[in-house]
Each structure stands twice: as C-alpha cells, then as structure tokens.
Fold these 3 entries.
Entry 1:
Amino acid sequence: MRKPFRYVTLSFISCIILLLILTIISYVKVHQTLAYMEDIERNYQVMMKGEELISKMKDMEAGQRGYLLTQRNVFLNPYYDAYRVVGKIINDLEDLVEHNQTQTSRLTHLKKLIADKIKITDANVKLARAKEPISPENLKEDKNKMDEIRNTMNLFQLTEKQFLNNKYNLKISNDKHLPAYIIALSASSALLLLASFGFLLYELRKRINFQKALENNLDKLQRSNSELEQFAYVASHDLKEPLRKIRAFSGILLKKHYQALNQDGQESLDKIEKSAERMQLLIDDLLTFSRTVNHRDQDFETVDLNAILEEVESDISLSIDEKQARILTENLPVILGFSFQLKQLFYNLLSNSIKFSKNGVAPVIEITSEEMSGKDIFFIEGIREESTFYHICFQDNGIGFERNYAEKIFVIFQRLHGRQDYEGTGIGLAICKRVMGNHNGFIFAEGELGKGAKFHLFFPKTPNLVNNNQIQKLLSV
C-alpha cells in the first residue's frame, strides 16, 4: 500500500476511534445525568417524606396535649389521623433509602422511637379517659421521646442534604473538564479529516499528472513504433533483396567455380557465405524484434503458457536431443497476452539456456510458477504495488554470467561472448524485455559465473492492465 493511502486509512481509523470515544463519553454523560436526576428526585422524596413524618408526629403531639388539657374528643382526631399514616410514611422511607446503610440504620432507630412514643401517648390517653391522674414522669418521658424523634429526624434530613450536596459537587467536578475533552476530540477528528482530504487531494493530483505523463509517453511510443515500422519495411524489402542475390551468386560460385579458385579465393568465398548467413540471421532477428513492437492493432487474448511451452519444446526438439537437455516445469498459468510474442519469449529463453550450457554437462532447465503481490517485488513502486503478478522463473545450470552484466544482457546487440564462441546476434534477450513490456510485465536476470542463470518474469494477473492500443482507445473516449 502506498504511503498516502496508508496515511488516509490511518486517519479515517483514528477519526472513527475518536468518534467512538465521543459517542461513549456522550452515552456515559447522559447515563450519569439520568442517574443524577434520579438520585436528586429520590433525595427530595426522602426529604419530603421526612418533613411529612415529623409533621404527623407534631400533629399527634398536639392532639394528645389538647385532649389532656380539655378532655374533648375532637382533639384526638388529628392524633388518630396521624397514627394511621405514620406507618405508611416510614415504609416509603425504608424503600427510598434501602441502598443507604447509614440512613437505613437511622430509620430503624427512628421507627423504634416512634413506636415507643406512640406507646407512651396511648397510655396517657387511656389514663385521661379513665379520669385517672397522669404522672409527671410519663409526661416527661413522652416529651423526651418526642425531642429524640425530632433530633433523629433532623439528623436524617441533614444527612440527605449532605448527600445531595456531595452529588451536586461531584457532578460539577465531572462536568468541569468535559467541554474541553469534547472540543479537543472534535478538533482532532476535524484535523484528521482535513489531513485525509489533503492526502487524497495530493494523490489525485499525482494521478492526474501520471495520466498526463502516460499520454505523452504513449504519443512518443506511437512515433517510435512508426519509425520502427518504417525500418522493418526497409529491412524486409531493401535489405533482404540484395542479400538474397549475394547469397544466390555466392552459392553459384560455390557449386560451379569453387574448385577453380585457389586457396585464397576459396577462403574469401567461404567468408562471404558466412557473412551473408550472419547478415540473414541479423535481419531475421531485427524483423522479429520489430514485430514485438508492432502490435497496436491487436488486443490481448487468453494464452495458456503450458501450450506455449509445448510448442517451443517441439520447435527446438533437435537442440534438446542433441544436448540431452531436461526441462522440468510446473503447471503454468493462463494469462492475457499475445501468443506469438509469448512463444518468442519462451523460445529465446530456452534456446539461450541450451546454447550457453557447460561443455560435457547436460542442460537442466527448471521452470517454476507462483503468484506474488506487487508490494513483495522489490523493484515495483507506485500503483503497481497493489496488483498481483504471476512470477515465472527459468533457471538453468549453464555457464552463467557475472552479476554486473544483469542489466547489460537485455540491451540490443550486447554480447558477453564472441561470435567464434557462441553464435547469435545479441537481440534475443532484448526481444524478451520488449515482450514483457508489451504485456505490462517485468523481467530481470540473476547469474553467477559457472553456476547458471535465472530469469524472472512477472506478468500482471489482473485483466484491467491493457495494452497500448486499448489505453489509446480509453484516452480518446
């Protein structure tokens, strides 16, 4: 993956993470607010119930005193009314403070005090009804119980107020830095989104420039192909015709007048014939090279490389038998390409491995195949890193070559050996490189002197890599 795309991906992932954090914070904050509101409501209910309880206890106290002073039953009505609801109020308070151990214990104590107070008050009312005297101790004890109830209830209410204040202070403390956190996270998300947009804009501009450069290169390639076509025409007509005459006349001399020539004349005639043969081979190789360029009117077709290999083995079967060569191969892929050029590619590579074999050692040629990601191929950069390639390797046990010639051997007319050692024109590997370029692929060589050579071919697997003719059609739309 290219760095801009990696940065964009990381930026978007970071934004998503920050947005998730904001969502979680918002959810937690809403949950805390709801819980806080519930706590406040419960605290207010407890305090209201506490006020109601103490009010009813005061009603009971006032009703008792009014009856004791006047002996009139009308004063007992508030007493009995309060008596009926006190129990319910206490039960409600117990439900409200059930999770607060301190208040629950205090409420239990208050419940006992109220029960004792009601017991004393009932006893005093019964004595008053019986017209019997009430001892001052009973009245004093009744008053003390009431005072104790008031004190306990005040402490109960004060504790609830303290709980309410603590929750409020905690809320203020939690909310104090929350806006800063939200602003920081939001700003970070915005900056990351802007950075992602910047990376995308940068990459878009690069791709636009790349497309413009591609269009310019296609124009140059078009002109180069036209020039090469003109050269091919000259080579096929203007050069081959006089060469045929030279070979024809030298052939006549060899048949009819060879014996009539002295030794010097015979040697000269032999040199003319050999030079003409080399010239014929050179012209044929140049024509082959030009045909690998002139493919503008062709589109890719499905090619089974296993079938191509079988055809090539059949074509060079005499050389294979003569050198007792062994070709070991794996199952090769089916690709999109030009069958004629791929056959020429395999032909040149196999012929080279057989030609540059060691004296007295039978050639062994291994052909392997695998799929590779573009990012795992060290010399591939840019958009091609995202593609998948078929990697095909030709490895032999021949004479090899020095490592510093790995690039030079693909240059046209470059030879590492003299003509007297190995025949050839120095065009074969240049044709291989041209064929790989026509298939949007790559070729490079590895070698070690005396230990053989390896030729690595990389064909793109994806069918959207089209040839120059198809690219021109797309650009013209």
Entry 2:
Amino acid sequence: MSPIEAVATLLGLANVALVVRRSLWNYPFALAMVTLYAWIFLQARLYSDALLQGFYFIVNGYGWWNWRQAKAEAGEVPVVRLSNRARLGCAAGAALVALGWGALMSRLTDAAFPWWDGTIAVLSIVAQILQSRRAWECWPLWIVVDLLAIPLFLVKGLWLTAVLYCLFLALSVWGAIDWTKARA
C-alpha cells in the first residue's frame, strides 16, 4: 500500500459515487484517479490495467461531453437501455477481444496473469463505453468486472485497490438500482 494508491482509492470512491448519482462532477475525479492508477498498475506489471487507464482518460473526456449535452437537452442525465441485439453484440465482441488480448499479452509481455488481467481490461472498456453513453447495462458489467478484479488485486498485494473494488461492487449494485428507477 502506497500513499499514491490511497489517494487513487479516495478519488475512485468519489468518482463512482458521483456516477451513481448521475453527477457531471464524477469526471474530474475520474481523470485524476485513472492518471494515478496508470502508474500503480505499471509498477505491479498489470499492463492491461495500466493501458486501460489511458483508455479511461480518453473515454471519460467523451463521457463528460456526452453527459453535459444530454443534461442540457433533458435537464438531467437520462438513462437509456440497449436492445437485445446490442447486448448480444457487446457480449460477443467482448468475448472475442478478450481472447485476442489475453493471447497477445501472454505472448508478447511478462504480464502477471495476462488472461485474467486482459479479460478485466476488455470488460472494463465495454462497461466504460456503455457508461459514457448512459446505458443501464454498464452496471451489471461493472459488477462482473469487480468480481473478477477483487481477487486479482488481492493476489498482487494491492490491498487498498481490492478494498476499493469491493466498494465499487456495492456502488455498482446501487447504480443498477438507482438507474433502474431513473428510467421509470
């Protein structure tokens, strides 16, 4: 546990709590958090997670813009649902990309747990895109990501990050419930 991990943990808690509440203020916290976590994951040789932070930085910029536009039009950040076809496409695409990314990380790097870490990274990308688009389906996917990430971070000795992901898990359940109500 390092002071940087502690700060990143606090930023992450604030970020996700604000996402659940559909607050635009989640984005400054997200940008600071992912910057710190990029460094943390590089140090732990979790390269997929480190690269994921760069992706998060870019998609959080897009999400900030998208949420601001939606709020300006609707007076709040509206929640949308994917069609069954879109859900199936996301699932199939994520599975194929996770297989490819895991294979790539396994062959080309000294990554710790390349398949596990790679799967978490790919599912996180899909969840982050869905979240940026205000899709309710991001929450069940975040729950899966959290359930996969917690034991990985424990194995790597990232205790605060594992605790953070336990809290993310609870917040993801809250988000799924709250966003369901927002759609009603």
Entry 3:
Amino acid sequence: MPRFDPHPQRRPAVVAGASSGIGLATAQVLATAGHPVALGARRVSACEETAATIRAGGGEAVALPLDVTDGDSVKGFAAAAEEALGPIEVVVSGAGDIDAALIHEQDPDTFDQQVRVHLGGAQRLTAELVPPMIRRRRGDVVFLSSDVARSHRPRMGGYVPAKTGLEAMVRTMQMELEGTGVRASMVRPGPTKTGMGTTWEADVATAVLQDWVHWGLARHPYFLRASDVAAAVAAVIGTQRGAQLTVVEVEPEAPLRDEDPAAG
C-alpha cells in the first residue's frame, strides 16, 4: 500500500484571484465541499461578499488582500490565511487577466505585467506556501493554465507566453516534488465565460474572434462556465492519495448538430 498520510478531514485552502470568474467559483465549490477557504485578490471587497455568503451558509471563509506581483503582499496573505484557518493544505493559483493585443504592438510594460501576474505570481505563491507543505509531507497545489499553452492564439499579447511558461514551471515542479507528498497539478480550460475580456472595445473583441476563426481556433460558439472549471479543480484536489491528476483539460462541449436527414 502507498505510504501516504490520509487527507485530514479539515483541509484549509487558499484561492488566489478569487474576486470573480473561475477563482470565485472555485472558492465556492471548495467551501461547499467542506474546505475552509481564504479568498485572495486585489479587490478584497468582492472577496468579502463571497466569504460572507459562505459563512452564512455554515462554511468557513475569510477574505484577504492579495497582489501576486508583490512579494510582501504574498507573504502577508499567506501568514494571514494560516492565522485564520490553520496550516494550508490546498493552494489554487488563478490570479490574472488578459490584455488583447498583437505582441509587436503591446506596450512592453503591459507585456511584462502579464508575465509578472500569470507566471511570476504563481511562483511567488509557490515559494511562500509550498515549503511548509513539504515539511508536513502533504498538500495540493493547482495552477490554472489555459489551452493557449497547447494551441497558441493570436492577439493575446503576453498571456500566451506567460501561460506557456507556467506550464513549463508546473512540469518542472512535478519532478521536483515527486516523493514529497505534495502534488502539483494544472487545470487547462478552453474558452471560458468570465470577466476577462469583457472590458475590450468592440472592435478589439471582433478582431480577436476573427483571428481565432481564421486559424481554426473557434470551431463553435460555446464557452465554458466558470463552475465547469471549478469542478475540475475540485476533482484534482479530491483525487485519492496514491494517484495524481497532473493535467486536466476542460473544453466547452459543442452544441448538438442538426440531424442528418440522409441518416434516416
């Protein structure tokens, strides 16, 4: 039999990027499953609304400020989360946004910020929260990637390079953490209906979709719901010890095709 400690009944979790979209849905799903949750984001007031709803339903949740591009903010978040909930057993790294642009037209500072959030931010969380997990010989770290790391999409600026780098980092971590009791995994969603992209100008959104169609990256108009991705994160975390879901890809299901009259 594998020599793993069983999951303790109480597994405190932190979710970075929990103010909206996938992060918010993930915090809700984990809380419903009985995990105490620390919701972290720059928009802490939005996190507090979700945390209050969780507490009203009998769950355990706290909202804390978090800027993953700031090392001091990450340290403060980790310390406050542990003080409020106890030793952290689960980390979900999902902070980030998208600035739609051609790479050669994107402002270099904006490009750098995308990398600092999606890749650098994930590593800052890792550096702060994974070493205590290793000492306790158990834990789950789930990184939210994107299918752009597998099939690159145009007009995503620094987002594609950042997510591609993130997946390389996670693959490396999986080798480095083997045998420690800490599982590093990634969930790779396809197009998802969230707040990201809703602030784009109409002409920008149109150009993005036209380019996706041109390169065969938009086979149908359906998008995932944030809850679909959150369910995948919960499945990764809930996998029985002795097994590990290293990467889970979630794509939107296509609409049903019209019946072929000739088939009758």
